[in-house]
Amino acid sequence: MRKVLFSIALVALVIPAFAADHYNKAVKIGQKAPAFSGIPAHAPNGEEASISLSDVKEDVVVLAFLANHCPAVVAADDRIIEFVDDYKDKNVRLVAVSVNDVPEDKLPGIKNHIAEKKLNYVYGYDESQAIGRAYGASNTPHFFVLDKERNIRYIGAMDDNVMNESKATKHYLRDAVDALLAGNTPPVEETRPAGCGIQYNKK
Fold it and tell me: What is the reported pTM?
């Protein structure tokens, strides 16, 4: 029975993200991004850090909701690292946050994951889950792209195959960032998030 359930879950992870404009019920394209500050984090070198939106000076911000225990995030790790490398000199900053109440997804697990994967971005943990609720993050990985004025310009998946990069044909995140850097509107502004569902604690 457990094998059957796992198979069903895995199938759900590889469903492509189709363009739409109504998947997120907390925020909308074009609205001001919810502020956040003082989220405890680790830097790429493993040292303690914190994440505040007001501290980010780059023109484009990519906020990524991740979870180390999630197979979809593991499958996307190298893609995210490559994305950060490709855009590090283009006035783009990616920051990541976990909100899951799972040991691997908390700060000690994040520090270990940074060391194991040699992550090149700041990665934090919000025990309160407030940032996840504010942005309506529902899955991991789940990406939010903010422009220079910190308006939300893209919400959704990184590409159209969360489990297998070689089969991805649409690169939503890169296309959105490239459009903003060129002063244009992202060609696709919202996609269905794919990956592992975020479990929020009852208030």
Answer: 0.89
SS3 of the chain: CHHHHHHHHHHHHCCCCCECCCCCCCCCCCCECCCCCCEEEECCCCCEEEECHHHCCCCEEEEEECCCCCHHHHHHHHHHHHHHHHHCCCCEEEEEEECCCCHHHCHHHHHHHHHHHCCCCEEEECCCCHHHHHHCCCEECEEEEECCCCEEEEEECCCCCCCCHHHCCCCHHHHHHHHHHCCCCCCCCEECCCCEECCCCCC
Copy the structure tokens of residue 197: 């569902």
142-173 tens-digit pLDDT: 999 999 999 999 999 999 999 999 999 999 99
CA dihedral over 172, 173, 176, 178, signed as positive or negative = negative
